[in-house]
């Protein structure tokens, strides 16, 4: 999600992962597991959700790639396979058939997947959902004029890369009635997880190609998008044609964007708003946990498979040299940066892969107990000017100011460049931008190291816009090693990725990893039935219910 993140630090991410149940250590202890919520809840009413300090980047499934977008798409869209509306311990991190009648039939060579779409499904306009709806989703992702960031996930579908580069046709997708057949270039054990991402949700076969995104369109999930007013609001209503078993408790969900985070917290505490997808002010996590307890009905802490990091733009003059990037890793004060996230904020790291991902191998690469500006200057004495992009939340501002102080102690000159989250994502995602460092983060889209190493650092996937390789790291040696690792399976795969993680960070350092983080959520007194979606890292909006 892009995974892209927790907006308390406006860390993007997407998105999303098969989360392990173990708690993540915070700066002031760990949280107890959440209690199960009652299934006897009320349907009806209007759920009022804020999105503080930012707006949606996109609502189009081919383009949306951040936590607030995916939280909404999870509520409105229908997938072939999807994650159920349950906490991790109850199976919320395990794929189940949704539009499909079951898991796909896979050919003996592992290269052909055949899905059967259940008959009788309908979009929110009453039109039928057939295999063509999912074929169209793949076409839109691969289309050269759509500019989808999901091309990296679809590149193994036969013809997708050639089609995207205007060198051939998309030959690997065929829809015939309720049958969808997808042919891969090579066997990939993660394909089912990839095709279950929101990018590949059902869309009408007539949904246009639009690189700016389509905001309002017929959907197949429990809710439909009624309207979007950019910079102000999004309104969802229950989909009367949805006949599935997913919860659809509120009649309407009214989402107000660009709210002030501190004011929003007061609104949620008072019941004037019910939830803030933009997160909680970092300094309030301690007081909230003391007032309401942890996982006892109002304030919740859950682990995430994700990494908060500084993306070091290797295409820019100051950080084009690996020594300069290594110096940044020595210069930053990871404990101080993590403290800006407040209580239960996460644990420090100097690696790309989170410890809970298969393949992770602990390595002592850079200081995680404090800054070492002396060592940074020994490695790189030339300094240089750095444009540092960060978002506008209070925690993000504090985070950037600490990083600026650290880097200037190591001889760099730092210019802070605050932007709202959605704007920052577009700025950094545009090739040739003037940013040297971007404070960002990543939550796994699915439980495999490919989703960190290849998705975020394979330079062959860089395009003109909508990039998520914010380091613009494009090293032929490592590109080849990433592609080789992606072809492996089992322990050999994880061993290769573990080695790549250490090798890339030790020798190329396109990132300065800072911490592995948690999700901290707070709901208002009017609502109940909080369920944390462990894959996408947010409250399940359609499950929240207005109390009787």
UniProtKB/TrEMBL annotation:
GO molecular function, one term: peptide transmembrane transporter activity
Subcellular location as annotated: Cell envelope
Record bears the keyword Transport: yes
Keywords: Signal, Transport
Record-annotated Solute-binding protein family domain positions: 95-462
Main subcellular localisation: other
SUPFAM superfamilies registered for this protein in UniProt: Periplasmic binding protein-like II (SSF53850)
One GO biological process term: peptide transport
Stated family: Belongs to the bacterial solute-binding protein 5 family.
Lineage of the organism: Bacteria, Bacillati, Actinomycetota, Thermoleophilia, Gaiellales
A GO cellular-component term linked to this record: ATP-binding cassette (ABC) transporter complex
Keyword Signal belongs to the record: yes
InterPro entries: Peptide/Ni-bd, SBP_5, SBP_5_dom
Name this polypeptide is given: ABC-type dipeptide transport system periplasmic component
Naturally occurring in which organism (per UniProt): Gaiella occulta
Signal peptide interval: 1-22
């Amino acid at each position: 999600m892009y995974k892209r993140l927790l907006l308390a630090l406006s860390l993007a991410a997407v998105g999303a992962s098969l989360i392990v149940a173990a708690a993540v250590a915070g700066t002031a202890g760990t949280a107890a597991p959440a209690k199960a919520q009652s299934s006897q809840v009320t349907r009806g009413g209007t759920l009022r959700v804020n999105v503080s300090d930012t707006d949606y980047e996109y609502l189009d499934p081919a383009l949306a790639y951040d936590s607030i977008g995916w939280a909404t798409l999870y509520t409105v869209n229908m997938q072939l396979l999807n994650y159920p509306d349950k906490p991790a311990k109850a199976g919320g991190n395990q794929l189940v058939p949704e539009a499909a009648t079951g898991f796909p039939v896979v050919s003996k060579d592992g290269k052909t997947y055949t899905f059967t779409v259940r008959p009788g499904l309908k979009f929110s306009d009453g039109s039928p959902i057939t295999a063509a709806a999912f074929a169209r989703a793949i076409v839109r992702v691969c289309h050269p004029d759509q500019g989808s960031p999901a091309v990296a996930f679809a590149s193994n579908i036969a013809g997708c890369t050639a089609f995207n580069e205007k060198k051939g046709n998309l030959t690997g997708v065929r829809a015939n009635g309720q049958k969808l057949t997808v042919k891969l270039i090579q066997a990939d054990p993660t394909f089912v997880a990839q095709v279950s991402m929101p990018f590949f949700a059902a869309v009408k076969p007539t949904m246009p190609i639009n690189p700016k995104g389509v905001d309002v369109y017929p959907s197949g999930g429990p809710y439909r998008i009624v309207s979007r007013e950019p910079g102000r609001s999004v309104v969802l209503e229950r989909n009367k044609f949805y006949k599935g078993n997913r919860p659809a408790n509120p009649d309407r969900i009214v989402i107000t964007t660009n709210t002030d985070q501190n004011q929003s917290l007061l609104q949620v505490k008072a019941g004037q708003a019910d939830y803030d997808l933009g997160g909680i002010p970092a300094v309030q996590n301690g007081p909230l946990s003391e007032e309401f307890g942890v996982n006892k009905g109002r304030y919740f802490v859950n682990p995430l498979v994700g990494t908060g990091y500084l993306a070091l733009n290797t295409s820019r003059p100051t950080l084009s040299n690996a020594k300069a990037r290594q110096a940044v890793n020595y210069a930053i004060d990871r404990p101080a940066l993590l403290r800006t996230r407040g209580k239960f904020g996460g644990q420090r790291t100097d690696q790309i892969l989170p410890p809970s991902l298969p393949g992770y191998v602990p390595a002592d690469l850079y200081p995680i107990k404090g800054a070492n500006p002396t060592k940074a200057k020994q490695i790189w004495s030339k300094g240089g000017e750095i444009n540092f992009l960060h978002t506008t939340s209070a925690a993000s501002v504090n985070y950037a100011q600490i990083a600026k102080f650290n880097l200037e102690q190591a001889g760099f000159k730092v210019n802070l460049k605050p932007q709202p989250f959605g704007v920052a994502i577009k700025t950094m995602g545009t090739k040739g931008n003037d940013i040297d460092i971007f404070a960002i983060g990543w939550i796994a889209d699915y439980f495999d190291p490919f989703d960190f190493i290849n998705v975020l650092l394979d330079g062959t996937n860089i395009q003109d816009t909508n990039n998520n390789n914010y380091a613009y790291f494009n090293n032929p040696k490592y590109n080849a090693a990433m592609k080789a690792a992606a072809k492996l399976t089992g322990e050999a795969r994880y061993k290769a990725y573990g080695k790549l993680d250490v090798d890339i960070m030790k020798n190329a350092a396109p990132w300065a990893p800072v911490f592995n983080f948690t999700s901290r959520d707070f709901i208002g007194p009017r609502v109940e039935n909080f369920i944390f979606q462990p894959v996408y890292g947010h409250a399940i909006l359609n499950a929240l219910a207005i109390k009787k």
